[in-house]
Amino acid sequence: MPRLLIVKTGDAFPEVVETHGDFEALFQQALAGAGFAARVFDARREPLPDLAEIDGLYITGSHSMVSHAEPWSEALKPWLIEARERNLPMLGVCYGHQLMAAAYGGMSDFHPARRESGTHPVTLTEAGREDALLGALPERFPAQLTHAQSVLQAPADAVVLARNAHDAHQALRYGPRQWSVQFHPEFTAPVMRAYLARQVDALRDQGQDPEALIEGVAATPEAGSLLATFAKRVAAWLETTPHR
């Protein structure tokens, strides 16, 4: 069994936590369904773990903003650089996506078109269709999204694996075992609806129809499969390189 770590970078809305679980619990639920377990490290409150004791890690979403450069977030950057140098498997999600991109030389900040929320289609690039992780997905698939910031400039050596009408960097690869995605593979349709219910005023303020977005929420099993697929990849790599 791979030693998986969930790097917790924030908390979901209280009503989401009460009804569905916090960000890390949503990850754990998805992994448990495939027979995997992962421990949690709260990056805001705990010292950085020893990378030698980790076989693969996930980085969660957050209501914080990468561009605000909070001390705990900035402290993760050199740790993530070392993890990449070790070729440690990584999968960043939303805030984790933006943080990884910023750590590796890109830029993450507020999107000029403002917030993207709801269930929206994402399309794989040619590189994405051939990718070891995302290549198992359909060329076009629905995903749950909620973010005000985006990767505005990808690192020079990153490969763009997916995009959509709102965001040119929906998924990136930084090395043979390092990925990040802007969308939320851990979100279920009920979680997405709860997020949209919280964002009604903000969405109206930017000219969107929140009721239509809530009505348009759908299940996203393809995107949701990424968390378990990543764990399976880590397990397979351990079989071939047990002393990584």
From TrEMBL:
The record ties this protein, via CDD domains, to: GATase1_1
| Keyword list, A-Z | Glutamine amidotransferase
Q: Domain (Glutamine amidotransferase): give its ranges.
A: 23-192
| NCBIfam families tied to this protein | PRK09065.1
- UniProt name for this protein: Glutamine amidotransferase
Q: Which organism is it from?
A: Billgrantia campisalis
